[in-house]
Write the structure tokens for this entry.
Amino acid sequence: MDHKDLLAAVCLLCVFEGLLPLLAPRAWKQALAQLLGAPDHRLRIGGGVMVVIGLLALQWVRGL
């Protein structure tokens, strides 16, 4: 993996992270409020699931 690929991935992360607050700020606030009230173990499980999905998707994309 080239350092440019990593930088491109970080840039895309910023784009995707900014879409919801840009397009639906009220829904973004509500989602954030729900996350703040969620127990830590649920957030850890959700984070772990997202990491696994992301790694699997990355492997799939790299295989194309």
